[in-house]
Amino acid sequence: MLEGISDKDLTGPLQEPPAQGPKTESEGCSDELPLVSIVVRSMGRLTLDEALESLALQAYPNIEVVVVNARGGEHRTLGDRCGRFQLRLVNQDGPPLPRSKAANLGLSECKGHYLGLLDDDDAITPDHIKGLVDALQDEADEIVGYSAARSSSRTDADCDHIKNFSDPNVTFSKLVLGNVLPIHSVLFPSSLLKRGICFDENFDCYEDWDFWLQMARVAPLKFVNQVTAIYYVGGGSGVSPMQPDEQTVLEARNAVFAKWVRLLTPEEMRAIADSYHQTL
Fold first, then answer.
1. Would you give the distance in Å from CA 174 to the centre of its chain?
2. Residue 271, CB half-sphere, CA atoms under 13 Å: how many?
């Protein structure tokens, strides 16, 4: 379950990217920048438009959007563009897909050097992807980047800002104890998928938590100090940290723990214990 870390003030509604100064040679052509692929699992909800708008407003110039028709059947027409970016809809007229299977299908369709996911009821601010790519390009090795996020309510004007998710020191050991990474706060190199990392299709809740555990086990995580992911409470997963279905949460958590308790090494158990003791 996501756990809020701080409550500092955040940015407001989505806005157009700020005007940029003269482009450098490397900024002048998007083809010279690594392609970023963003997977959106769509259930055909009205909130999809806002999610796609937040992608269309991204300042980073080289993005492709892969929308997976997770609801199945005929998805409403989206066209082939998301603002200035290419958009592809997959599984049109196909079967309904569970969350993990939809994520894996979307990732398999991606062409980008960096990959990310955005749920169809969440959003990102215009500088989100650029900030993450800038941080990852500074690293020589495979690094998983993540931003801070803020939770918000669509229905309660007094709860525009509820809580922040902004732990600057996320590690594998800390993730074993609970998920603190909203799915759209993370950007990772596509090369990590070649190590066999994928969404476990046995999970249809907390599938992202298990996915991050797989990644954090083999690659370090780098915090990018920007609050650019917007997490709307009361989504359809049943595991919102603000409005949880207690039985769903319990069963989903137990399923993840049952998997990982069989996989942890003695060295990893010791690191988890050390991480816990540091919080006392």
1. 18
2. 13
Task: Enter the pTM of the model.
Answer: 0.85
Cα–Cα dist 141/242, whole Å? 36
Instruction: Give the list of residues 6+ apart from residue 6 with CB closer than 8 angstroms, or none.
Output: 164, 166
d(CA 27, CA 174): 37
Distance CA 134, CA 10 (A): 21
- How distant, in Å, are the alpha carbons of 63, 93, 179, 182, 218 from that of 111? 10, 23, 27, 23, 22
**pLDDT tens by residue, 66-93:** 999 999 999 999 999 999 999 999 999 9
Give the whole-angstrom CA distance, residue 80 versus residue 88: 6
Q: How is 61-82 classified by DSSP, letter by letter?
A: S-EEEEEEE-S-BPPPP--SEE
pLDDT in tens, 181-217: 999 999 999 999 999 999 999 998 999 999 999 999 9
- Outline where 166-279 has alpha helix (H): 172-177, 207-216, 246-261, 266-277
